[in-house]
């Protein structure tokens, strides 16, 4: 299976000058004439959890396999990638088959990062079947739910207050180098729309715990979630080559939800406020010509359609294992500035 992967934009000008800034070359090294080629394994993350907060029970649904091997090229603000899906036929029998469309892209500007995603997954398996279903045969088999579908789309923005010395681009776009350790206060904001449906309740009948989820059912959930977050990001650098980048912000999310307990029931609605956390991680080797490392991001949204004692957690993100090589061109290739 072939996929076209969207580019990571790494510069902003004209109407986007408000996101640009002058850098301190003692901390950040740029490569205006570099052509960056990369090969990486990309694993996109999506999970659906139904949680009973009162009794600390949880049902965790996961899709089967969403990893690709990607070959990509970046020059200045433009880039593209070609991905090949990793398919394991044995996993289909064990975890079921998941059909999906998954588009994720990010624009790395000097003062901030925009992230956009559209995900549509159908077909999940219950990861903790053995611990939640009575008399389940073994820990290596699972309930397969080909009827569960999750559609989610949203945009996330993270603003950097120290763009002169701290670079998200270095860790996550591989087109420049963070030479010295530096950090920044960050502010984040996001908006998400999601629809989760199934032919029968997400909560299976006859669970091993009689008091789990108070005997409630749920077949559909849709909602809009917004959040605002505050945090800090820091990249630790050793000998101008090895780095560890950590970014964490937290705040409150506001969710307006509609849900149905049964397929033919009239939808109900509610509004709730929940904690929200965003996390980014990167580590590896980054020098003039080579980048070898791991990058990861993770976000989640909460809904409480069944009251304060039960909630739906939708998590998404990605993990990349990256090998990149920069080739210094003798002549600059002209590109229009944006």
What would a concise description of this structure say?
The protein is mostly beta strands and 338 residues long.
Task: Tell me what you see in this structure.
A hairpin with a 3-residue loop joins strand 12 (220-238) and strand 13 (242-260). The protein has a ten-stranded antiparallel β-barrel with strand order 3-4-8-9-11-12-13-14-15-16. The protein has a two-stranded antiparallel ribbon with strand order 2-10. It has helices spanning 89-95, 129-132, 168-172, and strands at 2-5, 28-30, 34-52, 57-63, 67-75, 78-85, 99-109, 112-126, 143-160, 176-178, 182-197, 220-238, 242-260, 268-286, 290-303, 310-328. The protein has a single domain (2-328), classed as Lipocalin (Beta Barrel). The model is unreliable at 1-13 (pLDDT under 50). It starts with a strand and ends in a 10-residue tail after the last strand. With 338 residues, it is mainly beta.
Helical content class: under 10%
Average pLDDT score: 86
Overall tally of structural domains: 1
3D shape: globular
**CATH topology-level fold name:** Lipocalin
Structural class: mainly beta
Biggest sheet statistics: 10 strands, antiparallel, barrel
Strand fraction: over 45%
Order of helices and strands: EEEEEEHEEHEHEEEEEEE
- Low-pLDDT parts are 1-13
Helix tally? 3
Strand order of the largest sheet: 3-4-8-9-11-12-13-14-15-16
CATH architectural arrangement: Beta Barrel
Number of strands: 16
Radius of gyration from the alpha-carbon trace, in angstroms: 22 Å
Distance between the termini: 32 Å
- CATH class term: Mainly Beta
